[in-house]
Amino acid sequence: MDQIRVRGGAALQGSIPIAGAKNACLALMPATLLTDEPLTLTNAPRLSDISTMGALLGSLGAEVAGLQEGRVLALSSHALTGSRADYDIVRKMRASVLVLGPLIARLGHAEVSLPGGCAIGARPVDLHRMAMERLGAEIELRDGYLHARAPRGLRGAVIDFPIVSVGATENALMAAVLARGTTVLKNAAREPEIVDLARCLRGMGAQIDGEGSPEIVIEGVDRLGGSTHRVVADRIELGTYMLAPAITGGDVECLGGRLELVAAFAEKLGAAGVAVEETAAGLRVHRRDGPLRAVDVETAPFPGFPTDLQAQMMALLSTASGVSVLEERIFENRFMHAPELARMGAQIEVHGGTATVTGVERLRGAPVMATDLRASVSLILAALAAEGETVVSRVYHLDRGYERVEEKLGACGADIERISE
Ligand code: EPZ
């Protein structure tokens, strides 16, 4: 298993290109199942999760080209041969459940494994199921699989989500575009990934209004056609790399970054003493004079502070002067990075969904272990600022969501290398 070794201390300087969003791409790829015409996605990131989704779509009979090269994915579902998302794939990647809506809409049936537990929380899929049932699907749980049928097709409905769910909104959107009549999604997720999916579906001929607001209205159409769509920039990769100059006292331009993708996060950075400026090519981030200051953070659905940047922000606040309180409101177990950061000298107390971070002058390098995607990159950020050497193991988590992390940071002067075994 690969490890990443970092020798901390360098103030990062330079520019980092931001890739297309993993979580947008993972929702866009299943949209191919809705049409027999080709769907081309440009600006796709090259990540193991994207390959996993490609393998899942392939197992359903879709043709997926471009996974090796990255950037341009050519998808075609002109002849689907399967309707089953196997446990072996779904347990590796929960986003697999995003084939449920498109399969029911296109074929009238689907068998999708329940994903099971996850390192950051229970993450049930009851809202995905509720949305499909509201659209007229009959769903039964058998042998660990959701067996869905809509023999008379799907029909539009009002779906009122009791809590905001990104994935359930995406599934409902993809099912509703081919349902008969009007669907209204209430308390819908407003994430940029939802907006990107809606834009892509509209390019395929769907009738959708209101994406980016809590109410999305969809007028079902008989069929969708092909399209070419550019994947939106990855706001979580952007936020992560914005923290690299912030934590090391450097100055980095994140190319392709846009402030509206990370507004709540950038506001907290500002309060912590980090300058964020819009440039012609992206966002420039550097430390203002003086030490980092403690700030309180509460995660929330978009446009709030993203849970996917909480671990990385904790790394920054570990070195800020004062006491910061981080409240994790989306997932119940998303502080696994705290004990690893503590191995590097961070002072963090966790009680339930609250972490209290007392800033220390200096972190110190140590061997640490990645527990999930965002936790792993928080350890790398901490390592960039730490004195001495840090070795992060289990970096396969990192490869699920960060493309060439060691190259991107290395190009800005970080002393970082991958040790392959
Ligand atoms: C998406 O997951 C992202 N994944 C996650 O990114 C991200 O953390 C999350 O949204 C929140 O922003 C992808 O887009 C592939 P949710 P998703 O449904 O859709 C509960 C990363 O690091 N819930 O919005 O699965 C759920 O347990 C990953 O890239 C139900 O109760 O998240 C959670 O508490 C990790 N029932 C809350 O809703 C359901 O049926 C929000 O989850 C569905 C969700």
Summarize the structure.
It contains 14 helices and 24 strands.
Task: Provide a descriptive summary of the structure in words.
Strand 4 and strand 5 form a beta hairpin. With 421 residues, the protein is α/β, with parallel strands linked by helices. The radius of gyration is 21 Å and the shape is elongated. Strands 22-23-1-24 form a four-stranded mixed β-sheet. The protein is built from 14 helices and 24 strands. Helix 4 packs parallel to helix 6 and helix 6 runs parallel beside helix 7. The mean pLDDT is 96. It binds ligand EPZ.
Descriptive keywords:
29% helix, 421 residues, 4-stranded mixed sheet, alpha/beta, elongated, binds ligand EPZ, 14 helices
Give the mean pLDDT. Answer: 96
Number of strands: 24
Ligand types: ligand EPZ
Query: End-to-end span in angstroms?
Result: 6 Å
List strands and helices in order, with pairings.
Layout: E1 3-7, E2 13-17, H1 22-28, E3 39-44, H2 48-59, E4 63-65, E5 71-76, E6 84-85, H3 87-90, H4 100-107, E7 109-113, H5 126-134, E8 138-142, E9 145-149, E10 158-160, H6 166-176, E11 182-186, H7 192-203, E12 207-209, E13 216-219, E14 227-230, H8 235-248, E15 251-255, H9 263-271, E16 274-278, E17 282-287, E18 297-298, H10 310-317, E19 323-327, H11 337-343, E20 347-351, E21 354-358, E22 367-369, H12 373-385, E23 389-393, H13 396-399, H14 405-410, E24 415-419
Parallel strand pairs: 2-15, 3-14, 6-7, 10-11, 18-19, 22-23
Antiparallel strand pairs: 1-23, 1-24, 3-5, 4-5, 7-9, 8-9, 11-13, 12-13, 15-17, 16-17, 19-21, 20-21
Helix pairs in contact: 1-7, 4-6, 5-6, 6-7, 8-10, 8-12, 10-12
Bound molecules: ligand EPZ.
